[in-house]
């Protein structure tokens, strides 16, 4: 499949998945998970199965990302922002949400500067309902000091 058609298909798939989400947290998680899953699926497969792996990776990543996004509340977003702001690259921060009982472990993996300010890549392990789910993402500091997850 041509790269252009593949990219168009991925954008279409992410748009469809986003339309199924029920709230902003779930939408963000679904989009990020879908994109990351699609990229991973594309890179682990080759030949004729690459397209199928890309699509399956996007679907699986979207589902996992939506699950994590759905479970995060204001306490978790505050802990994420504090981790991005104060934790050194390669060092993890963990917390347990007292309201949900979910456990999170976040590690900034790379920090870099952009024209708009600092951005940080991270991994997050979320223990939800006895299962650990892992998300990879990037967040950038906004002019008001908040952190926003970016594609």
Question: How many strand segments?
Answer: 5
Given this structure, which CATH class of the largest domain is correct? Alpha Beta
Helix content: 40-55%
The quaternary state of the protein chains shown equals single chain
Major sheet summary line? 5 strands, antiparallel
Contiguous runs where pLDDT drops below 50 for at least 5 residues: 6-26
**What would you call the structural class?**
alpha+beta
Shape estimate: globular
Do you know the CATH architecture of the largest domain? Roll
Structurally, how many domains make up the residues? Answer: 2
H-E order = HHHHEEEEE
Q: Quick check: average pLDDT? A: 74
Across the major sheet, the strand order is 1-2-3-4-5
User: CATH fold name of the largest domain, please?
Assistant: pyruvate carboxylase f1077a mutant fold
Quick synopsis:
With 151 residues, this protein is an alpha+beta fold.
Write up what this structure looks like.
The chain has 151 residues and is an alpha+beta fold. The protein has two domains: 69 residues; 77 residues, Roll (pyruvate carboxylase f1077a mutant fold). The protein is built from four helices and five strands. Strands 1-2-3-4-5 form a five-stranded antiparallel sheet. Helix 1 runs antiparallel to helix 2 and helix 2 packs antiparallel against helix 3. The two termini are 23 Å apart.
List keywords for this structure.
49% helix; 151 residues; 4 helices; 5-stranded antiparallel β-sheet; alpha+beta; pyruvate carboxylase f1077a mutant fold; 28% strand; 2 domains
């Amino acid at each position: 499949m041509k790269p252009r058609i593949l990219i168009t298909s991925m954008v279409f798939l992410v748009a469809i998945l986003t339309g199924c989400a029920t709230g902003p947290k779930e939408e963000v998680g679904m989009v990020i998970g879908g994109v990351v899953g699609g990229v991973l699926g594309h890179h682990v497969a080759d030949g004729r199965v690459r397209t199928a792996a890309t699509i399956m990776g996007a679907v699986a990543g979207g589902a996992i990302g939506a699950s994590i996004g759905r479970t995060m509340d204001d306490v978790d977003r505050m802990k994420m922002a504090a981790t991005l702001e104060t934790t050194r690259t390669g060092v993890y921060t963990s917390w347990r949400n007292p309201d949900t009982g979910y456990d999170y472990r976040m590690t900034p993996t790379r920090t870099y500067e952009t024209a708009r300010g600092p951005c940080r890549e991270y991994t997050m392990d979320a223990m939800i309902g006895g299962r650990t789910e892992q998300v990879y993402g990037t967040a950038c500091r906004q002019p008001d000091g908040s952190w926003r997850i970016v594609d």
